[in-house]
UniProtKB/TrEMBL annotation:
Lineage: superkingdom: Bacteria
Catalytic activity as recorded in UniProt: ATP + protein L-histidine = ADP + protein N-phospho-L-histidine
Subcellular location: Cell membrane
GO molecular function, one term: ATP binding
Residues represented out of the complete protein: 200 to 459 of 461
EC number: 2.7.13.3
Sorted UniProt keywords: ATP-binding, Kinase, Membrane, Nucleotide-binding, Phosphoprotein, Transferase, Transmembrane, Transmembrane helix, Two-component regulatory system
Enzyme class: transferase
The protein's name: histidine kinase
Organism from which the protein derives: Actinomadura monticuli
Length: 260
């Protein structure tokens, strides 16, 4: 969004068009900025009372004189946990892409995926295809979070198995998480990336998600110059992340480069 159309000299139609395009981009950028600021402010404002509420409830739960009170307090504590997750996720959503490129580093996608799969104790059978040397530039913490959200969902909505694949594809790095669950109907494949969307409310809420996981995942993909989509796959769902590849050093390339 921060790129502008080059402004040609003079006052002809092209010059006017360029000026209008750039003014529109300015307004858009300001709107995006205000939106981020709102989410960030809202999260900060919500955090303080939640922290107070939690402290009080924990205190009350430690002194349970009657069992009805105890149940009420427990339920309020669960609500507090939930509020806290939502606020934390909103805050993360507001911050993605605001740090510039300073936090970026070269990342071996297969190594990152292998570590994340290993770190999790999963009830699922996880199959991996993780070739070496697929490198991207990115913020490690964010890419771990993106993959973590996809794996959380696979765990929530899959049948029994999930496949994690890394590959080079058409000059891009590909990271795909495929499960064998109920899948996502074509009509819902864009909607699932919207904030707070849940297709199967009972199941999703019961599973403890915030409905922000895929919105966060897509925002991280975008901030890295990539895309995250649901692709055709049956049975089950397949989420494909594509990121720009960091090219290997020239001498490792298959074809000799023309001189000059
Ligand atoms: P949640 O916290 O509810 O999981 P997400 O943003 O991660 O929120 O996902 C949004 C919705 O997309 C989920 O509630 C679920 O209905 C659907 N969904 C996500 N991943 C899958 C999947 N692997 N299989 C089927 N449905 C999915």
């Amino acid at each position: 969004l921060s790129r502008r159309v080059p402004q040609p000299p003079g006052e002809d139609e092209i010059a006017q068009l360029a000026r209008t395009a750039n003014a529109t981009l300015d307004r858009l950028e300001q709107a995006v900025g205000r939106q981020r600021q709102f989410a960030s402010d809202a999260s900060h404002e919500l955090r303080t009372p939640i922290t107070g509420l939690r402290a009080n409830l924990e205190d009350a739960a430690m002194h349970p004189e009657d069992s009805d009170l105890r149940e009420v307090v427990r339920s309020a504590l669960r609500d507090t946990d939930r509020l806290e997750s939502i606020v934390t996720d909103l805050l993360l959503l507001a911050r993605i892409g605001t740090g510039g490129t300073a936090m970026q580093e070269p990342i071996d996608l297969s190594a990152l995926a292998a570590a994340e799969v290993r770190r999790r104790v999963s009830t699922l059978r996880v199959v991996t295809e993780l070739p070496a040397g697929v490198t991207v530039r990115g913020v490690r913490m964010q890419l771990v979070r993106l993959l973590g959200n996809l794996l959380d969902n696979a765990e929530r909505y899959a049948g029994s198995a999930v496949t994690v694949q890394v590959a080079r594809e058409d000059g891009h790095a590909l990271l795909a998480v495929t499960d064998d669950g109920a899948g996502i109907a074509p009509a819902d494949r864009e909607r699932v990336f919207e904030r707070f969307t849940r297709l199967d409310t009972a199941r999703s809420r019961g599973a403890g998600g915030t409905g922000l996981g895929l919105a966060i995942a897509r925002e991280i993909a975008r901030a890295h110059g990539g895309t995250l989509r649901v692709e055709d796959h049956a049975p089950g769902a397949r989420f494909a992340l594509r990121l720009p590849l960091v090219p290997p050093p020239a001498r490792e390339k298959g074809r000799p480069r023309p001189d000059g």
